[in-house]
Amino acid sequence: MRTATFRAEVHEQLERIGQADIIVGIPSFNNARTIGHVVRAVQAGLAKYFPDYKAVIVNSDGGSSDGTMDVVRNTSIDDFNAILLHHRVEPAAKIAFPYSGIPGKGSAFRTVFEIAEILGAKACAVVDSDLRSITPEWIELLVKPVLSGGYDYVSPLYHRHKFDGTITNSIVYPLTRALYGKRMRQPIGGDFGFSGEVAKFYLTKNVWQTDVARFGIDIWMTTTAIANGFKVTQSFLGAKIHDAKDPGTDLSNMLYQVVSSTFELMETYAGVWLPIRGSEPVPAFGFEYTVGLEQVNVNTERMLNIFREGLRNLGEIWLDILGAGDFKEIERLGALGDDDFHFPVGLWTRVIYDYALAFHKRRLPVEQLIKSMTPLYVGKTVSFILQAKDMGQQDAEAEIEKLCMEFENNKDYLASNWK
Q1: Same domain, 51 and 152
Q2: Side-chain half-sphere of 198: how many Cα atoms within 13 Å?
Q3: Shared-domain flag, residues 162 and 190
Q4: Cα separation of 176 and 166, whole Å?
Q5: What is the DSSP letter of 158?
Q6: Other CB atoms within 10 Å distance of the CB of residue 115
Q7: How far apart are CA 376 and CA 343, in angstroms?
Q8: Averaged pLDDT score across all residues of the chain
Q9: What's the confidence (pLDDT) of residue 268?
């Protein structure tokens, strides 16, 4: 067993606890405003659905300065009976401490994996600390498929506003589905369940001094589980309401983080994904119901300006990566009026595959390469927003399905150019 680098008082706590069946990790960084609600929902979920199991809640904090850890220490449900009818419950143990290592969500998760290994946990879950829509049922839905369904990894399934999660919808979901052949709808959802075995397996991987430790952990966990043949499923959790980002602002960094991690995993698992064609559904737990969603407001005019500015400033790079034919198509898009702007799905699929190939062949420094993609991504996003603005949620989802099929049908292009 690897010895985790915990401070003495944490080791003492772990020795006192001795063993646990379930670990729930809540990584945090300056989430004092929202984390109390998350902790209460986790406690209620453990008490209500797993009263006979020994559970530990782990808050792994990235150096918050707003009192996040104090909120965790002071949050408890005084009267379980009021919420949980007549279950007799032993409250879950709580551990809150700052982690060491590269600052980032991945380092926080590594701590959770290490505690799971030390305590011999059978099942684990991790949930975001900025969630406003988490309920006690989330804990059941993330943990039960592992404890009693024989699954190793549970990815979340949410209803999100059609303009929320645009990096997932236009890049990460279609690409990972086409690569690995599994229709895992939210591969970077942020809230996951997994077995103690998977936690141990993650700790054997040599990624904890890399960008995975900083920000690539969600896609890394999902891809690693699928590519290594673990049994995967997904659970419907209702709405994901959290501190959402406007898809037109501050996306360059997030795009770089997610896409560089996804492309890096393509290098690691090329032997797995190259022969796969088509995709299959992933079984889903939970009762799917309609939920009210928070509006996501978007400034399309600003986004179109970002795309056109990219065309002026990055034209040479785009020409080099995409080739003359597709670059001509991009130039044609730049000349369209705002109301006529439409980014074809076939063209977008080739853009992503060409960028993956440029990454594979190290055509440019990674950060420069992927950040040069930002205006193209913004163009694709604004095209979807204009197309889907009057659509219901189901019709918008059908458009994403068309995009996924395009990625699958064009995979030969990627595979034949990869070698």
Answers
A1: yes
A2: 28
A3: yes
A4: 15
A5: E
A6: 25
A7: 9
A8: 88
A9: 96
